[in-house]
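Field reference: sequence -> structure
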Amino acid sequence: MSVRVTYNSPLILSFTILSFCILISCAYLVDLTPYLALPGNFDWKSFDYLKLISYTMVHATSNLVGQSDFSHFVGNFTIILLIGPVLEEKFGSRKLLYMMLFTAIVTGLLNAIFNDHGIIGASGLALMMVILGSFTNW
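Structure field:
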């Protein structure tokens, strides 16, 4: 008897694994937050435009006491891992990737225009998937 593992949702699973690796790196190795998070003082003249997408892969790694706290990551990816594979099967990886990129960029731009604080996390993507899932016939 052999166990066969399939990678049936490549976009969602790859995004989750990449975000988890960044989370572990930020918590225990090298803090990548300054390089990936969308800053509060967005510099329109520099190369901060990649951060309009990369902020979705960075999550808070400590609580107020300074201890490791992964609840931000767990909250976002519980929703993403529950709804994302269904959406990826329904729409395909390419269309879902475009929807995720569009949501991340628009959310990042609105934050950069109207707020003076930074932004991290995939909460916007989780919300997009909840809304999209509610309109989808499963």
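Note: The helical segments are 10-28, 33-36, 51-54, 71-91, 93-114, 123-135.
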